[in-house]
Every structure is written in structure tokens, then in C-alpha cells.
Amino acid sequence: MTVTFDHVHDRRSTGSLKWDFMTEKLGLDSEERLPMWVSDYDFQAPPAVLEALSQRIEHGIFGYAERNNEYYQAIINWYQQQHGINIDQRWITTVHGVLPGLSMLIQMLTKPGEQVVMQTPGYGSFRKITELNDREIVANPLVNDNGDYRMDLNHLEQCFAQGCKVMIFCNPHNPVGKAWSQSEIFALAELCERYQVWLLSDEIWGDLAMPGHQYYSALSLPEHLQQRLIVATAASKTFGLSSLRISNFMIPNSDVKAQFVRRLDAHGMDVYNSLAMCAATTAYQSSGDWLKALKLYLQGNIDTLSTFIEQELPALQFQQPQAGYLAWVDCRQLGIDDSVLEKRLVDAGIVPSMGIAFGTEGAGFIRLNLGCPRDTLLEACKRLKVALAK
């Protein structure tokens, strides 16, 4: 299989959030700036997916569609072959995106005013959907050990003891790129069981464990630790299908699954996008080799940035991500505040995600999206040097 990720595709004027909406979302003139903020690829989807979508569009009829056995079997086979996880089809609930599903679970499992735990620095949309549902976020800060992050389980137990009902767990973690070990996930799940806390594990980055690292799903936990567990998955990050809104929630507890399906039905979310199902099914069936090639390419991008920082910007600290294509870069040794740091970067023509957006623990950090052709990354490195070498 010959795959190249070096081709630079022009995404401007395609309605791309990442490329076309820097002005509306960030207040920035986007004409000459490189967007390194939104976490999606600048690569085309796998060839097999493009071909399947083309055939589906040529058919020309887009009436009501439903998940068939092929859809379910593609998911089950993928997780068994790629990760050694045996998924029962009865666990699978399909939702129009991970965040909508998490939002409805927060509504279902908690009452207004109750507490939800998230680990920080953490994905800002977890906080957004929690607070917009009138629940309180309780932060469980990760421990930063020279760039290697670990859980503070003692503090987490205090959070649970004070009455938190739900924990949103990011596995692997965005933004720090940590692929949690099996023992860490087991210890976390035991705490949840002891304090009767629901564990909502967002595993959308699981397929993107980098070479030499392993993703462990919470679905590999023993059965007695699965009854308060819900795992969110999707093909979107893996295969570059983010705007084809479809995700799958794995719910081993049959009563909770039935309650969740009823809530989806109450919101009219019982009809599925035929193109999204086609893309996800084909990706899981036919794009394993494409993913292997992609991860090698992404690792090359990670190595490129790591070498550049070491040689050209030694004041920055960069621990390579164990999973995902997001670089979490520590700029604190520069001794400048976040507003100055952001202005320097933007003035040099590069738009990152500022670490402070992921919680106070992210102050002094930036997150850079490395899901781009190598030439784009090399241009971004030049701009980083202009912005920060002084």
C-alpha cells in the first residue's frame, strides 16, 4: 500500500473551522497565519473511505438509515484485532458525536448543582458541557513530573469523598498525550467503585497510540468494575472524519444502557447519517494499513519538532506524546505571561491552542497540532523560532 501524507491540500474556503474561522472564533486575521489549534488532520481520509463514500453518493438516495450488522461487526472486529478488546454488540449505543453523548449522560446521572470531576489540564469542552448543564466541575490536577504526567489518586479520593457523582476520564489524555497504563486505569476504577462514582471514559484518541506505546481501554477492566463504566469511542480522530458526526458509547450495564437509549429517543436521536455510517464502517474494515502508515508519519512529525526544539529553542521543554498528534510544549522558562506568549506567536504567523485554556495548570504551555504535512510543520518551526528565539 503506497500512502503519502506530504501533499499540501488547500483547506481554505471549504468551511474548515481550523482554517477559515480564526477571525470569527479567535478575532485573528487568518490570511497568512498557520492554524495549529483545532485538532483535526490536514490529510485526506483513507482511500478506501473516499471510494466507499463516492459509491454511496453515486447511488443518490439518502433516506432514513439504520445501523446494520456490518456496521456493528466492523466495530467489534476492529477493537478485537487492534486492541484485544472483546465488545458485546449489546453494549453499543450510537450517538451523534462524543460530546453530545457525554452531555446527555451528565444530565442522566447527576442533578443540577452536583459535582463532576475532570483531570486538569484537560479538554475545555468537558468543562463547557458540564457547566452549561448547571453542574459543578471539580478539578483533579495531574502531577507533572518533568513532563511525564501521572494521576494524583489521593486527591481524587478526596474529590469522591466530598460527593462527586461522575468522573470524565480522557484516555489517552488530551492535551498532555499520556497513554494511561493498565494499572493506573485499574486503580482509578477501583476508586470509582468504592465511592459509587460513574466513570465516563472518552477513548477517542485510543487508536493513535504512537509506536512503542500501548493504549489500554477501560473496557479491559474486570467485569465487577464495568458496571459503573461507560466508554465513548469514534472513528473520527483516527481517520479524519470529525464532521461526519457519529460515535459509539459502550455501556456494559444493560439497565443503564436502556435508560440512555430512552434518553436519546426522547431527543429524537434515533436516525443516523448514512454517509457517516458508511465512512466509519469502511474505515474499520479496510484502513488498518493506512493507519499504520499514518502513525509512522505522525511520529516523524513529533521527532521533527522534538529535534527542532532541542537544537533551536532549548528554553522550551517538550515531552513527546505517547498517543495522539498534539504537542504539549512547556514555555514557562521563557518567563513571559500567556498574553505576551500568544501575541508573539500570532505576530509571527502561528496560531496555537494556549495552554491556559485547558485550566490553570496549563499556564505557560502551548498545544500544537502536528497532524499536517511535513512542509507545513517545518514552516511552523521557522515561525516558532521567529516568535520565541529572542
TrEMBL record:
Keywords: Aminotransferase, Lyase, Pyridoxal phosphate, Transferase. Its EC number is 4.4.1.13. It comes from the Bacteria. Pfam families: Aminotran_1_2 (PF00155). Residues 38-384 form the Aminotransferase class I/classII large domain. Its cofactor is pyridoxal 5'-phosphate. One of its GO terms (molecular function) is pyridoxal phosphate binding. PANTHER family: PROTEIN MALY. NCBIfam families: C_S_lyase_PatB. Belongs to the class-II pyridoxal-phosphate-dependent aminotransferase family. MalY/PatB cystathionine beta-lyase subfamily. This is cysteine-S-conjugate beta-lyase. It comes from Photobacterium lutimaris. The lineage of its organism: Bacteria, Pseudomonadati, Pseudomonadota, Gammaproteobacteria, Vibrionales.
